[in-house]
Amino acid sequence: MKKIIIITTMLLVFFTAEAEIRQALGVDQRVDYPGLVKFGPWDDRNYAITKSDFDLIPNKDQYLANVPAFFKITMRKEMPHLGEFYPRSTYQLFQIRHGGLLQDGKWMKSARGAAWHKGDDPNGKGVPPVVKLGGPDLIPDVEFTLDSALSGNEVSVEFNPTNPLIGVAGSNRSGGQTMYYTQDGGLTWTRSQVNPSSCCDPTIDWSSDGSKVYQADLSSAIGVRWAVSNDQGQTWGPMQVLTPNGSDKEFIHVDRSLTSPYTDNVYLTYHNGNVMQFARSIDMGVSFETPMAFSGEPTGIGSDITTDAAGIIYYVYPSLASATGIRLLKSTDGGVTFATGTMIAALNGRFDFPIPAMEDREVFIYVSADVDMSGGPNDGRIYVSWTDETDDSAGGGNGSAANNHGWIEVYYSDDQGSNWTRMPHPHETSDGLTVDRFHPWLKVAENGVVHIGYYDTRHSTNRTGVDFYYNSSVDGETWLGEQRFSTVTSTNLPDGQEWGDYNGLSVVLDRLAMTWTDNRPGNGKAAIAGSVTNPTGAPSYGLSLENPDILLCDGMTDVTANLNISSLLGFNNNVTLSVSSSPSISSNESFSVNPVTPPGTSVFEFDVSGGSSGDYILAIQGTASDGNGGNIVRSVDLNIGYNTTAPAMPTQISPANGATLVASDSVTFDWSALPEAREYVIEIATDVAFNNIVYSETVDSNTTTVLATLNSSTEYFWSVRGQNACAGGPNSVIFNFTTAPLPGDCPANLVTKSVVSFDFENGAEGWTSGVNSGADTWTLSNANPAPGGSVQHWHVDDQGSVSDTYLTSPVISLPAGQSPLSFHFMNYQEMEDDGNSQCWDGGILEVSENAGPFVQVDNSLLGTDPYDGPFRTGTLQGSLAWCGDPQSYLNSIVDIDSFAGNDVQFRFRVLTDTSVSHPGWDIDNIKINGCYTDLIFEHGFEQP
């Protein structure tokens, strides 16, 4: 423990030696200002910290060697969910907002800070490539500096899966995330853009056909965004917001398997306050669905996503729990649901740990994952790689840089993540006391070869500098031998970002590219892209089924399955097809073409009969000469769902027959599982005869959830049946249920009727404005009409001075016996908030009953638009109000049933503070609705 204290003290001296900290300058003498260096380097803006600010810092606050205390407090105010660890992007955000440390009045801008606070050159270009000759190591054809003197790091790279000459890279550099593209296999790169208002964390992937490339970043507010390019990364569509702020460490992945039910789904992983998050796009990046939070799973950071040929999602991340480990979250339905997480392997470290080459930012523990989809002997194998502390390090992220050591771990699973095997380290381990390896990136090529790149300190002095190294595994069990890839050793980087958090590697056919941060003498800190001919990219072929899953019934003949035999790197040797494993139900097997010269196709034909219902696998094998005296063997499985009879009738479970108040936005249907059913068809109708079917779906399990499809306050009827290849089974009995009313709805047996309405097209319609203080700016306007046809509406300014104004309705007599009564209004809000769920300026709704005083309508009565937060100042300080920038037009619905039978007036009231004006508040289409018995049943018209 003494060693830890000594090292920490040395770091504090390094950052504060030139700063004179004077207690008397602090605004709150209850704060020990010199003591704030326990939390980070000194910054003169720490003098503004109050005791209440200081109390936001936890007792065991994570020390950040490059972020001062005042900014850590800012982060905790903006992210109240923040846990033990700050986002890895905290340092970048500090530079973006403040430029760098302020000590003794001197502003010490970092490179990123200078870029953000002194302008940027959007047209800058990388230096010309330096071509290298071959040598004993894996020497790149080129080491291209993407942007010189701009502190590039955390460089991602992905090549087009259909064309190894085309690639896209992204760099976290001082001016923001920067994107590049190549059209010559990585020999040269061109900058396409600096993402506007961006921070960092570039991540890239391609669509299955290579027509689209996706990128994601963190904005300058630390929110997740994405963009799509339709021209190979030369230009990009707008950055679209997934999360506005509070997120970190996002990675993107595209399901490119042509046999997946979810081909071209786009997936994003990230964390909010170390709670892991997931989002998906099912429309090729046009939009993303509402993200999913894994709140019940251990917290973590540094995740990755990969998918297999069947579209199964493997979401992998290092946990931050007391018993840290690499965790797996798995989805078999394209990301709709995930199974409870499981452990892949335990960790020695936790979050990060210092070594001499990463003494300040520290080595980040993250994962890199990929799946073998080659059709070879390891087809379907999942690989996961990460950095960890060696067994003889302090562990848990503790210990000094001098006493810690890093190595690379690689694990694999051959059973879809149920069990895991540890591979040998992809590097020498006997020199672990003198060499560190860290920050790997892993990819599996089309031929099943595993490629990995990482930092290695062996050529530096006392483990302080780095080279980039490479290794590969052909058999998935052993490594061919580590090879130096960078040609010059990079010296130690003393800045707070150092080498960043991760690197990049991409391999497509005969091209291999790797990206890293470089600090070789004379080059300065820069993002480097190196590319080379793939050393294991020999010509080969691929074997796949057009549809690997098939449902069959006893007695079917001439069943067909289409085989595709693709050519990799010009392979054209004959491929001989055979059945290597055949189930007992199969007979009369044949291939329409055999052998096949790639690229080519063949139709496999067979009959099925006998046996019992169940799942069977028929294995098809391809064998071809590799041209060197050996054979290349590929195999593919045909998964047969076999039945001998049609399914029986299912029994419904929920919603129960006659169920009421069923939530319409999410209805889960359950029924009994049938042994013979391969899938089920569920139908929902508004009539018992099923003449008006509003929902029909075929599902493969005995449950389904219907989202945002059914109306509220409506009676529905539902039925389900099982089916298989033999036939469809009988329909179940018919159940009915009624959905719950939403705010403003009438129950299912009543109809809605307007009590009174105001659209202001003909004037004020009895509404009047007034003031308690300040200027009355309520006016009828046509400037910002609500959707739906009406144009004229009420508008009030959010003034830049103190004001308290209101708009009052005429007296309205509310009827009795027409419950529930509801008050509706369309409104657009753009009033000043503080960015932290409180209001500097804001609006409220008040009501007066029977000429009594006006009182604020309670938040519990606001059905669709609750108040945004309390007033920070003014006569209503602490009271809830609407505010924000902006809220587009929303139909706000208020429960006023408690006022039924009385005379009421409603009042919209706006209060503003001493400064900062905003556009204000627009209000239109006000109405009060009640509920009536359907008129056809009044006055005796009902049937006897």
TrEMBL record:
Ranges where the Fibronectin type-III domain occurs: 646-742
Recorded superkingdom: Bacteria
Listed CDD domains: Sialidase_non-viral (cd15482)
Cross-referenced Gene3D superfamilies: Immunoglobulins, YVTN repeat-like/Quinoprotein amine dehydrogenase
InterPro entries: FN3_dom, FN3_sf, Ig-like_fold, Sialidase_sf, WD40/YVTN_repeat-like_dom_sf
Keyword check for Repressor: no
Signal peptide annotation: 1-19
The keyword Signal appears for this protein: yes
Keywords: Signal
UniProt protein name: Fibronectin type-III domain-containing protein
